[in-house]
Amino acid sequence: MLANLKMWLHKEPPGRIIVVSFAIIILTGSLLLCLPACTRPGKSTSYLDALFTAGSATCVTGLTLFDTYRHWTTLGQVFILMLIQVGGLGLVTFTTGFTLLMHKKLGLRNMELAVENTNGDSGDIGSLVRMILKFTFSCEGIGALILMIRFLPQMGAHGIWVSVFLAVSAYCNAGFDILGSVMENGNLIPYAADPLVCLTIDMLIIVGGLGFVVIADICHSKLQPTLHGQHRHSLGFHSRIVLSMAILLIILGTIVFMVLEYKNTLASLPNFGAKLNAALLQSVSPRTAGFASVDLSKEYDFTKIFTVLLMFIGAAPGSTGGGIKTTTMLVLLCCVHSVLRGQPEAIFHHRRIDKFTVYRALAICGVGMLVVLIVTGIITSTTPNVNGVDALYEATSAFGTVGLTAGVTPRLSPISRIAIILTMYIGRVGPVSLGLAVSIKHGHIHTDSVLPEGKIIVG
């Protein structure tokens, strides 16, 4: 059996192994969460409920059927947090990283898997994976320490666990919380006016959503030269795009949410600063963390539709977040701009974007929209009393691995729950990656044949 497993790992393409590894983690997590010791006395957990929770945690989504604190015991919460951590970084990043930290040689096969999992460069993948693990645990540790300033005085020793759980969940863009002792299913609503909690969560979400390649570029180009008194280098083209898109979407989201919800869901907050604090979280969270500072079910429909757009775009490639990714959206916008100007190729900042990247972006967006529309239809047709906007909100949240909900998740029918589980899985591994993993045979794509050109009139 072990020999067959090694043979399969050796011959299969890296993308397929990563796709399968996520499925194995979800199934293993669902079995663990079915243990009676994971559910509080008086509560019950069916296998479908456990599978839904394990899928949501592994895919770092945050959609929950129950209040995580009130339904799951400490053991269940530990299992959920482990799934979040492994799912956020990727199983291959973990195994490869610890192999490198133990100073063992990284084989060619493991290197291919690590490159696929992190979107890194095979020439320096060892350094990248080491940096990912060290940087991740450092950020989560610092975030937990800051959150303890608030939760330790309020909750005593339990505040330590709450702080650690929230820090890991925020950095991995998961959106799970264990604040049910403060307000059932309240998430961060009780702390909407608390800048220490919200800004810490904001920063963890943003850093986790930048992507490991961008973090490495910032460290190597800016931080390390500064610490050693050396000349700082300019960031790479990809890093500049990711940072620019992140800043633009955060500012735009905050302004739009403030304008639309100022006299609605933000009205109960005491002052402008508190409203801005909550609006900033609601701008950052849809990309793709799932923390809520207001009652999302009471938002205006237009606000929900705008949030759907943010959730669909998501975070950066190679990050803990989901969505079609910010760079994909930029490529599509460049494509539209080039066509409108009569240019034969997509161009951004005097750089030509190769056609394969454009095709991949179109495929990701097209498949993503198709999945979201199908799941929206399933929810509206199988779950009673759910309107179209809320169903679209739920489906996009699942695909973008966000975790925001307008109160629909606990009411989902069994068929809708299965559809959401599959959607979270597709959103986490990526629609194109999943398609390639299913279709490619042993990693070979035949492109050597020359085919006649087909003339098609469009537009």
From TrEMBL:
Keywords: Cell membrane, Ion transport, Membrane, Transmembrane, Transmembrane helix, Transport. The chain crosses the membrane at residues 15-35, 47-66, 78-101, 155-176, 196-220, 241-260, 305-336, 357-379. Its main location: membrane. It is found in: Cell membrane. It holds the Pfam family TrkH. It is a multi-pass membrane protein. Signal peptide: none annotated. PANTHER family: KTR SYSTEM POTASSIUM UPTAKE PROTEIN B, TRK SYSTEM POTASSIUM UPTAKE PROTEIN TRKG-RELATED. This is Cation transport protein. It comes from Caproicibacterium lactatifermentans. The lineage of its organism: Bacteria, Bacillati, Bacillota, Clostridia, Eubacteriales.
